[in-house]
Amino acid sequence: MICKRHTPALQSTAVLVLFFLLLSYISLENAASILSRKLQEQFAFSFWENERMKDEFARFFGLKRPETGKPLFMPPPILADYAEALVYKDIPYGKKKGQTLDILVPLSLRSDEKLPVFVFVHGGTWIGGSKDEVLYSHFAREVLKAGYLFVSLDYRVYPKVRFSGILGDIRQALLWLFAHIEEYGGRKRFVLCGHSAGAHLVALATVQHGVLPEDVLQSITQVFLLSGPYDLPAYDETLDIPFKNLIRQVFFDLFEGRNNLRELSPVFQVEHTHIVYVLVVGERDEITPREQSEKLVTKLLEKNNIAFLFVVPNAGHGGTLFVLNSDFDREGAFASIFRTLLERKPETSWYNRGEPWRGLTGTGTSYCHFLSSLPG
Q: Coiled-coil stretches, from where to where (predicted)?
């Protein structure tokens, strides 16, 4: 007898097994090679951008460069020294494997001081990624300099859980932080940030009714969304790759049915909120095209929210993370904007003057700023 609670996991596994069985007609090795080659071709700019970033990270932090396509991880002692922080590593926010988070506390924190909290959610296409990758941890120093605690969290991914379980982990982590962050020198004022799939999760958690309790939602002042997919039905049509129909079945299973794509798309869930939204996307991002960010910021503004969109010139999918750190932002523009955004209080009229970035970018042309208000 199969208990009902086991059914989603079995369905996920069954879809993957079917997927690989069908691919076996041309051999798994050949299928994987064909798919990998096609993905590299379609996403060539972002793929090689990521490899170049790993080169720079490895040199800067004195780390061994992994082979092409493999992630580069940040050892905690190096992160602690670089960020000038005390690192609380792999704190469990739940009882399941993978439900852990890191908290970085600046060494300069006074015993009587409570700092606001910056929470980062990594990407990985809902099937991978890790808070320990250098790509996701290097800019912690910038956040701490702005007067925050830095929190980075891991969550369970598909096919161990489907999307409701993934979003449930984000909710559980935020509830844990709301209850316990004061023990680490934080206060209940949160800024959330996510990249790629993490941006989708953060966006949905803050716009979809009922994901977060009202007291937790009210404690969130700003949200940074980097290179995220926000319209899943449109995103479903983005890929032009071999075995697309089979891969779409896995995609639909991840989101627990094709009919759920609209409900799980932030662009269709937006209402008025007090939260300030800052969206950032690479000009050359082929993985989550800029139209996805433009759709969401337009919907936010239509509902009279405060929202801004930055397009980073000549950046791909991962480049929006690279420019958050002044040690790697070659133009020196967006890292400055990022720090200024964090240091300003979002409840002030500073956000409502229409041109908040004047004087912040140096030349004024390094970064494009779109849709701070609707036309007309």
A: none
Does residue 53 sit within a domain? Answer: no
What confidence tier does 41 reach under pLDDT thresholds 50, 70, 90? low
Q: What is each CA distance from 194 to 56, 262, 350, in whole angstroms?
A: 22, 20, 24
Span 139-160, mean pLDDT? 95
**Number of domains the chain contains:** 2
**Cβ 163 vs Cβ 17: under 8 Å:** no
Whether 153 is covered by a domain: the verdict is: yes
* Same domain, yes or no: 157 and 225: yes
Output 245-251 pairs: Cβ under 8 A, ≥24 positions apart. Answer: 246/19, 246/22, 246/23, 247/19, 249/15, 249/18, 249/19, 250/15, 250/16, 250/19
> 14 is written with which tokens?
């069954």
Tell me the per-residue pLDDT of 67-120, one tens digit each, with 9 for 90 and over: 988 999 999 999 999 999 999 999 999 999 999 999 999 999 998 899 999 999
CA nearest 143: which of 114, 105, 178, 175?
105
Judge if 191 and 100 occupy the same domain.
yes
Could you tell me if residue 49 is inside a domain? no
Question: Are residue 255 and residue 281 in the same domain, yes or no?
Answer: no
Q: Are residues 252 and 290 in the same domain?
A: no
Phi and psi of 28, rounded to 5°? -60, -40
Based on the fold, state whether residues 172 and 301 are members of the same structural domain: yes
In angstroms, rounded to a whole number, what is the distance separating the alpha carbons of residues 46 and 316?
Answer: 5
- Tokens for 193, please give them: 């940030």
Answer yes or no: is pLDDT of 161 > 80.
yes
Strands of the sheet containing 276-282, edge to edge, are 85-92, 100-106, 149-153, 115-121, 186-195, 220-226, 276-282, 307-312, 368-370
Of 200, 198, 180, 108, nearest to 190 by C-alpha is: 180
Supply the pTM of this predicted model. Answer: 0.86
CATH of the domain at 89: 3.40.50.1820
Angle subtended at Cα 158 by Cα 157 and Cα 162, rounded to the nearest 5 degrees: 100
What is the domain extent for residue 184? Answer: 71-230+265-370
Gyration radius from the chain CA atoms: 20
Q: What is the pLDDT at residue 368?
A: 44
Side chain identity at 135, as an amino acid letter? Answer: L
